[in-house]
């Protein structure tokens, strides 16, 4: 942050404190042969770890290992990162942007969405729901600029950014906003909604993934059980135990590795008002093992079995919300009115359920990513996918596999990581391990 960006009310002493508290960032490609090392030393405050992880994951980078340790009022964070193909970072523009962003995480930053109206939607998931929502928006002369949709345990949460089709401007008329809400609410509620649906129109824009986590958490999606056997087989192994001698609660997580996993877990812990004091992350290409030493914001550990079980359920839900289910379809086409409504209607007419969606426009091009299953929640047949691609245009709609780094079979001589309950390490051992990885002490 430059002096021109400082609030006018700050005196010189306060500006000095800002300089002293500014994060120290080092990005090094020489230390490790397979990953880029990112070191961040930053004054500790609630949510600062989430800010750092958010910067890295928003660049679509993979965190292969991480070591986080808090010493007094400072955090020492070390991340081993690659791109989604498992390569070290060689793009100087990416490295420079990441260093600049990490160096300013102490300061509030707004999201890049401007001139749009944000629709926050929650309700009961069903086949064709997104198609119906898009059809309503098209009838109301609303153009979808960007959208994210998650489904989990029979519930749906979506953030949709729209503008007026004719003017291309943000929708601000209160009467029109009420009409949008009134038209969408019954669509989201459906015929068998026992939980209720919510439709909120907002001018404020937050970080989309974090807001989706908050919406599904408020909707209490974590209290329900998976409806298909394939989901039950993929439930993350999460355990929570108290280390009474040190006053920590220790959270251990073992699950399949995937993009943005660390962000999802840290986001949930942060929004539940827990502070992460120490943590380690390790991945082997297929699985991830995460360990967090946490306390409440008032410095106390988890106090009851009910709270412990709630933490387990919430972390499991946070991991599963963004898990990839079904077939990934990518649409690249010239943006035009009703494009999204027509595409999603084709999915519905062919019995495809959208489990996750990422909608965006760049210039005149629509870039849409869909994860689809059949009506039972399983991978749809290739014949159905081919028919859908033919109707939409096979040159525009393509089946996309996950990046190589997330589907590779890793064969190692050492045994795979097992949780088997929380293993309480001594604080001295944990800190020594982190200091070694920070390069502050020798082995």
UniProtKB/TrEMBL annotation:
Domain ACT span(s) in chain numbering: 118-195, 250-325, 328-407
Xref: InterPro entries: ACR1-12, ACT-like_dom_sf, ACT_dom
Repeat among keywords: yes
UniProt feature coiled coil, ranges: none
Gene3D superfamilies reported in the protein's UniProt record: 3.30.70.260
Keywords, in A-Z order: Repeat
SUPFAM superfamilies: ACT-like (SSF55021)
GO molecular function: amino acid binding
Task performed by this protein: Binds amino acids.
Name assigned to this protein: ACT domain-containing protein ACR
Native source species: Saponaria officinalis (Common soapwort)
Taxonomy of the source species: Eukaryota, Viridiplantae, Streptophyta, Embryophyta, Tracheophyta
